[in-house]
Each structure stands twice: as structure tokens, then as C-alpha cells.
């Protein structure tokens, strides 16, 4: 069995979990999320904890059952944490003239291209932008859905990936880019 799958998930106060037709639904103060669980995994809710067990009678092969065991446990755990605490990602725009602003969930990026880039974020994601003098612009994204938040961060990062020569691009806050020396270092 998977050692991750064996760990029980404790349900915090204010969060309700229900199972119907193989779909686990989690409701909390930050929102509501649902996830379909494969039929080879049994989901059990008792004593304020959620546990997952492998259904030995299911015809799915053993390795696949093991993989599902840890996968669905992690997905449901992310949902429980998301609806109770939420997830937050902070990104930083490093580069001369790079700017970001938002009107509601419409975010406008100015990243050195000839045109501005607009992205409409889903209503589940809250966005906040901050631009201060002599500081890199910062964009903060918050959501209850960890998977959706990661997807949006990857999309935003793809507009200007960090490059190793000057260190410019869209980075996560605190991320360190390994720098390369340019052509002049080899000429000596």
C-alpha cells in the first residue's frame, strides 16, 4: 500500500465532507470543491477523519490501485486545506519597465513586448497587484483550489519565463535564478 494513502485526513471545524456516487464534496468557509474518486478506492468518513482503502475486489491492476491510493488522498487533503485555509502564491516581475495592474479579475501585463497582455482570471481566484517605486511589481493570487492556482501561475509565468543571463522574467517570490556568465567571460 501507499504510505501517503494510509495517512488519515482530519476534518477541521467548519468543514463538511460528503460522498455521493464516488464524488467527494468538501465545503468550508473559503468555498466548495469536489473530486471524483476512482471505484478501486474506498473512501471512509468516521470520527472526524477521512481514510482511503484499496478495494481488493476491483479488477484494476495492483500498481494502479497503489498509485490511486496516494493520489486521491493527496487531492482530497488539498481540498480540505483549501476550503479551510486557502492557498496563496506571490509572483514578482523582474525587468526594466515591467508592470502589472488589475481591474477586478482582468489583469494587464506590460512585459517589454509591443503590446500589453491581458488575462481574465476565473472568479474563484482573487488577485491583488502592488507596484511601488524602486521595487519590482508584485502580483498575489489567492484561491481555495490548489490545482487551479498552480495552472494560472504557470500560464502567467509563460508570458515571460525567467532567463539565466540577466535574471529577468516572472518569478515566484523568493525564487533564485542560477545565473550564467555571458560570452565575455569565455573571451579572457
UniProtKB/TrEMBL annotation:
Write down the InterPro entries for this protein, in alphabetical order. Answer: Ribosomal_uL6-like, Ribosomal_uL6-like_a/b-dom_sf, Ribosomal_uL6_a/b-dom, Ribosomal_uL6_bac-type, Ribosomal_uL6_CS
* UniProt cross-references to Pfam families, sorted A to Z: Ribosomal_L6
Going by the entry's taxonomy, the superkingdom of the source organism is recorded as: Bacteria
One annotated Gene Ontology cellular component of this protein = cytosolic large ribosomal subunit
For this chain, one GO molecular function annotation is: structural constituent of ribosome
UniProt xrefs under Gene3D superfamilies: Ribosomal protein L6, alpha-beta domain (3.90.930.12)
Q: Which PROSITE patterns does the entry mention? A: RIBOSOMAL_L6_1
Q: Name one GO biological process term.
A: cytoplasmic translation
Q: Which residues form the Large ribosomal subunit protein uL6 alpha-beta domain?
A: 11-86, 94-171
Q: Does the keyword section mention Endoplasmic reticulum?
A: no
Q: What keywords appear on the UniProt entry? A: Ribonucleoprotein, Ribosomal protein, RNA-binding, rRNA-binding
Function field = This protein binds to the 23S rRNA, and is important in its secondary structure. It is located near the subunit interface in the base of the L7/L12 stalk, and near the tRNA binding site of the peptidyltransferase center. Component of the mitochondrial ribosome (mitoribosome), a dedicated translation machinery responsible for the synthesis of mitochondrial genome-encoded proteins, including at least some of the essential transmembrane subunits of the mitochondrial respiratory chain. The mitoribosomes are attached to the mitochondrial inner membrane and translation products are cotranslationally integrated into the membrane.
Alphabetized NCBIfam families for the sequence: L6_bact
Entry's family note: Belongs to the universal ribosomal protein uL6 family.
Q: State whether it acts alone or in a complex, and with which partners, per the record.
A: Part of the 50S ribosomal subunit.
Entry's HAMAP family? Ribosomal_uL6_B
Recorded protein name is Large ribosomal subunit protein uL6
Native organism is Prevotella histicola F0411
Lineage summary: Bacteria, Pseudomonadati, Bacteroidota, Bacteroidia, Bacteroidales
